[in-house]
Amino acid sequence: VIHWYKQKEGEAPERLLFFSGGKVTVESGFQANRYMAERISDQKRCVLTIKDVIPDDAATYYCAYWDHHLIGYYNKVFGSGTKLVVSDKGSSPPANSEILQKKHENQIMYICLIEKFYPEVIRVAWTDDEKEVTDNVVKGDTWKSTKEDEYSIASWLTVSAENKDKKYYCKYEHEAEEASLPTQGIFTLDRTKTAPQEEDCRTVFNRGNFMYQLMHRTAYLVYIILLLKSCMYYLIILFFIYR
After folding, report:
1. How many whole angstroms separate alpha carbon 74 and alpha carbon 90?
2. Is this structure's pTM higher than 0.90?
3. CB–CB of 30/17 below 8 Å?
């Protein structure tokens, strides 16, 4: 049985329909003739189709199913979700994309900056010549540019300085464009130098924006580590007290 959920921004998810035995059952409150679900067994896919899309359809849609565990209970597993944006404005690819580099002691940070695209839904991943890289990767949230309906995003990868000659790629998938940026011939961040004159204040601000996000995330991780350390000391003290 495959379930489909609809979640509007800021609201709880609600079940839209479920698909069982080749039959679709639409929940009350939804127009049954607008929704169709189809299961493609050989590809392990279930496709949801919405007819005559209206602005109220803008939401994130999740598929889900009940997974049976050996010890006798069920757990509902959800997909990662598909965001539907309903707008009169057509999609536009990123106006600019580049990889920046910052060296710090024995590490190198590659920062992938993707600017001015619409809609805001985009997938960003780091790869090497063989596979996707997931370790030491941080993906920032999209932010809105000063111009209406333009979004930007940054993602950064930290590697050991020993891998300075290894090539990595920042790959992004947007409905208007897909591209892969290599970590060669990139711009190096140097705080001792002033920004090039051709860069306007907006570009400098955007770069500062994701650096601020990085600092915020780092501070959060340090806080968690200190909190765990304090809890450990607390348990040790309790052990000796009760002993």
Report:
1. 42
2. no
3. yes
Quote the pLDDT of residue 233. 76
Domains identified in the chain, total number: 2
- Alpha helices of the chain — where are they, by DSSP H? 201-242
Please provide the average confidence, as pLDDT, over all residues in the chain: 83
Question: Do strands 169-174 and 123-127 pair parallel, antiparallel, or not at all (unpaired)?
Answer: antiparallel
* Rounded Cα distance, 53 and 34, in Å: 9
Query: 176 in a domain, yes or no?
Result: yes
Eight-state DSSP code of residue 72: S
Query: What CATH number is given to the structural domain containing 144?
Result: 2.60.40.10
For residue 176, give Cα distances in angstroms to 11, 45, 118, 136.
28, 24, 8, 28
Peptide bond into 119 cis (omega under 30): yes
Distance CA 16, CA 1 (A): 14
Rounded to whole angstroms, how far apart are CA atoms 95 and 145?
12
Tell me the residue range of the domain where 18 lies: 2-84
